[in-house]
Batch of 3 targets.
Target 1
Amino acid sequence: MIGGWWRRRRDARMLVQRAIPEDLWRLTLSRFPFLVHRPVDDLQRLRDLSTLFLADKEFAGMQGLEVDDGMAVAIAAQACLPILRLGLSQYDAFKGIVVHPDVVVARREVMDEDGVVHHYDEELSGEAMEGGPVMLSWRDVADAGDSAAWGYNVVIHEFAHVLDMRDGAPDGVPLLPDRAARERWLDVLEPQWQDFCARVDDGEDTLIDPYGAEAIDEFFAVASEVFFVNASALRAEHPQLYELLAGYYRQDPAAA
């Protein structure tokens, strides 16, 4: 296949010419403990994927923010963690990454069942749109090393949405091989989500962000956050959900 050969040759050239400098890579790993504890082979693959990600994507800082090399690498490393085994082609559908200094207030509207339109403001730390761009709050990205303790990671959350949207609108189901695989996925995810929603409604403290009760696609995204940044806790509390995500992402971070 000529296309595949050309891409491999281009990638090999990028990995030589635009490799992330060693000092910057080590600094990035030190900032995010959930990365540094990975095996050496995983870290090298993550570095290569991050290099290719940076070569492919276009970063734009907003509100006067300048996205420097350290910021771009921090985003790339976290964005590439979910696709460590899946490959960078998972992100082919978009190019742009928009970075704000802090949360963004977005004006929303919703129509109720009587046809009345209501307007409201929503604070966003990130947002993924079909076809891009992906929007991120730099404050939340920078704090990811600390927020991992409570299972929060805005980059992984938004890029889980990107993966979810590969087969169309976000519905909590990423692109899977066939209908049977989709049905098997929902056989696990839907009961897990319904049980989670019941726990949230009862006011329980939950390992997974209560925001996941908003919709099943948000549940997939917040569960993915915990899977990558607090894997042992997710495996202990939600073993079936952990196994589902481990099978899709082809990773077992709790064993690292």
Target 2
Amino acid sequence: MSLLPVADALAKVVSGVAPLPTETIPLHATRGRVLASAITALRTQPGFNASAMDGYAVRAGDAREGASLELIGESAAGHGYAGRVGENQAVRIFTGAPVPDGADTVVIQEHTRRDGNRVIVEAAARPGQHIRARGLDFAEGREALTSGTVIGPRDIALAAAMNHPRLPVHRRPKVAILATGDELVLPGQAIGENQIVASNNFAIRALVEAEGGEVLDLGIASDDFPALEAAIRRARTEKADVLVTIGGASVGDHDLIQTALTREGMRLGFWKIAMRPGKPLLHGRLGAMHILGLPGNPVSSVVCGVLFLVPLLRTLLGRSDAGPPRRKAVFARSWPANDVREDYIRARFLLDDTSDILKVEPLALQDSSLVSVMQHADCLVIRPPFAPEAKPGDICEIIDLRTAGY
């Protein structure tokens, strides 16, 4: 099978993927969830003309410097004044309280003085001053939160103010994660002479959870068909929306995952893509379950997770943004010409107080097994196939790993 371009591979991964069903949950539990339908205000805020300051509610025409006004009552938050303000009258008012009928301005407390039952105006006030007009924040029926919004604290505050105790969100995708390989042991376990500590499954789990997914940990399967097939069947039994396998997708004698998946009925979408790192990426469907077979090298696994798993999860969640955003930067130093594969170079940012342009410096070691190098990378520099040699100052496109939270 020929190498598939990255853009074509991503299109296949998200093609025909529909957002997961909707569930309505309590407002306090919605942080990080994705809104399934637009939210409109169920009320107007404020529902009345409200004072923005402590002071006196009066008629603007009476609020002349030196005027003496009769104090006739008080309006506090939650306890408005029921009467009407007439000529040369004032009502003591506090922040957030309803402005009584007849009044059209508020003289702040600092611009008045009291003389028994009289209020002396020491600075004139203009109409509407220090009054929050009814509906200033929002009006009933206004659409404020759109479908596909990832709900954050500010969105929750707005939904609460609009009188929504519950919100409709898309169900979280259940992602089964299966690491494969006789060479793998979990952190803290005894390590054999020919073994290594598994790290990819932890990175992919964190990636899934950061994107709002629910993880089904299938552990580590040995390089034999019974173990692999048992794990695949468990993912199906527990109704995983996505099965992510790690390792075993290449062409070696111990790379069995594609055969195991095919035996279970997987319909292969593609295998092998024109990118570095991550060439042996596998994609398919097993019934309703999406399959992504990530490479075993740690950097390849994470890069493919960012480029393909994240857009898949976001599409399942109904998000309006399909993948991590890309931005422009410039090379801080030269970099060799590229070959047929799209390259994702691990790089760091350089601080330069003399320029507003973001500069990136590729890290010296780019081997896809180097976990420490990936951890030090601020971004991935995207090098298209057959890109010519890059020189300092040349423009490039990057994925900012820090902003994306990866």
Target 3
Amino acid sequence: MKISFATGLSVLAISSLLVGCQTSEPAEGSTETQEKTSESHTHVSESDHEHSHAHDEEAKQIYDGFFEDSQVSDRSLIDWEGDWQSVYPYLQNGTLDEVFAYKAEQEDAMTSEEYKEYYNKGYQTDVDRIIIQGDNVTFFKNGKEYSGEYIYDGYEILTYNAGNRGVRYIFKLVEKIEGLPQFIQFSDHSIKQNESDHYHLYWGDDRKALLDQVTNWPTYYPSEMDGHDIAHEMMEH
């Protein structure tokens, strides 16, 4: 019997429309260099500056989904450790309306109302909080807690219709527990061990079927952030 709280991350969302995930990988952001003009400081060489620029470009390309298979490496749950909240309640109460208005101004793909409808379907979930500590994952659903131990089950590289790609990092439930999905799959636009600042999560009992889910991508940010902080973070990307 399939146990699934929601369906997974939209291919279209990854390829072109994710509000908070447009240009840079979590914790893969740009590195600023500043030349020192005083003799008491070390000058940044031209080669250092070029190296930094190349790193920035590579990070952006990876975030946008353009990378080689050889660049992908395994990750552990420590990358997603912490206390996380769903962004869906902020969509429901109107906090994210400024994000959809901003998207509509920046792109001609949809109106702000159409963006909101699109993300309403994408963000929808009844799991409003997730806590990850070590190998233990706790889902908070409808006022109840469901906790279990998950182990790494590899990754899958997906190619999207838009031509870019993404990586799903997969973890498997060690011991079957009622109320918990057999598999969870993380997508945060990173392709190597790297602390995540937000993520999209797919879950269910069919590992392969989860890779084909395209209409729903529950999204989680740190619980200490308020809705306005999250909205501004989304618009900055």
